[in-house]
Amino acid sequence: MCAEEEKAGWVSVHGGHSGEFCHHATDSLEAVLERYAELGFSWVGISEHVPAPSPEFRYPDQVAAGLTPEFLYDRFVRYMARCRELQAAFRPRLQVLVAMESESYSGYETFMKNLMLKFKPDYIVGSVHHVSDMGFDYSTEQYRETADAVGGMDAMYCSYFDLQLEMIETLRPSVVGHFDLIRIFDKDYRLRMLKPEIARRITRNLEAVARYGLILDFNLRALYKGGLEPYVSDSILHQAVEMGITLVPGDDSHGVSQVGNFMEKGIGILKRAGASTIWPLPRPIDFSLL
């Protein structure tokens, strides 16, 4: 895979979760890819979640279903193998990139690097779904509990962006996933992100994204869930454009019915903000850095 650019069209830098390999998604991976091909996508990155390395880092739905870390790891092995098979099978019609979505909790540095070396993904999406080893994006109740545990909403935002910077510096992911996910259940996020201690961290992290030449996932799943705008929000989007940061749409689909959702709206937002709609392929992993 090379870093050649594709002209404007439908692509997804963060997508393709399937019920076959993700407990909170639906449909087979093949069916999901078939839908991308039907819609005329130029390329899609399939970025399944990495498995939880220990019981406490499982998602609540995985806990409820009794899925063990051993099961999750074995399923991830099957995911990587199946994704490579489908990558070859779809090649004449759709360019499929085999990726993985990182986590950022205690021990993630070694765990992620071991996964990257073992499975050799085409790229990784660097994401943060935990603060102080507590999840925050599963439900409003979980969100509030984590905020209370770390000293309030502002403190949770600051911790999130501090961990995100650490993840960027440590993993150098080709793509930074849903950059401002921390706002997911916060109705006052627009005002909160203007607070100096939070705004300073946002700018600092965007500077790191620009410095390393990473892609920002323009994640459309927020719209699917009823959000007012994608991740990233408008104020961050304009900062990123001014810094020359590349933004690429990600539908973050979790089943056939969600493939390509809100792509036209998302691309329109990017165009109005002055962002380029020539989508570069994610940069391959430099394994010498691991």
Describe the protein's architecture and organization.
Residues 17-219 form the PHP domain. Keywords: Amino-acid biosynthesis, Histidine biosynthesis, Hydrolase. The protein is of the alpha/beta class and 290 residues long. It has helices at 29-38, 60-64, 69-90, 108-119, 140-150, 153-171, 189-192, 196-212, 221-224, 234-242, 263-272; strands at residues 5-6, 11-15, 43-49, 95-101, 123-126, 130-131, 134-135, 175-176, 215-219, 246-250, 279-280. α5 packs across α6 (153-171). A hairpin with a 2-residue loop joins β6 and β7 (134-135). The chain contains eleven helices and eleven strands. A seven-stranded parallel beta sheet has the order 2-3-4-5-8-9-10. 42% of the residues lie in helices and 15% in strands. The chain has a single domain (5-282), classed as Metal-dependent hydrolases (TIM Barrel, Alpha-Beta Barrel).
Sheet of most strands:
7 strands, parallel
CATH architecture: Alpha-Beta Barrel
**How are helices and strands ordered from N to C?**
EEHEHHEHEEEHHEHHEHHEHE
CATH homology group:
Metal-dependent hydrolases
- Uncertain stretches: 1-7
Radius of gyration, taken over Cα atoms and rounded to an integer in Å: 18 Å
SS class: alpha/beta
- Topology, number of strands: 11
What is the count of structural domains? 1
Q: What's the CATH first level?
A: Alpha Beta
Mean pLDDT: 94
* Secondary structure tally, helices: 11
CATH topology: TIM Barrel
> How widely separated are the two ends?
19 Å
Q: Which overall shape is indicated by the principal axes computed on the Cα atoms?
A: globular
- Biggest β-sheet: strands ordered side by side in the sheet: 2-3-4-5-8-9-10
As a percent range, the share of strand residues is 5-15%
- Kindly state the percentage of residues in helix: 40-55%
Family: Belongs to the PHP hydrolase family. HisK subfamily.
Catalytic activity: L-histidinol phosphate + H2O = L-histidinol + phosphate
Protein name: Histidinol-phosphatase
Keywords: Amino-acid biosynthesis, Histidine biosynthesis, Hydrolase
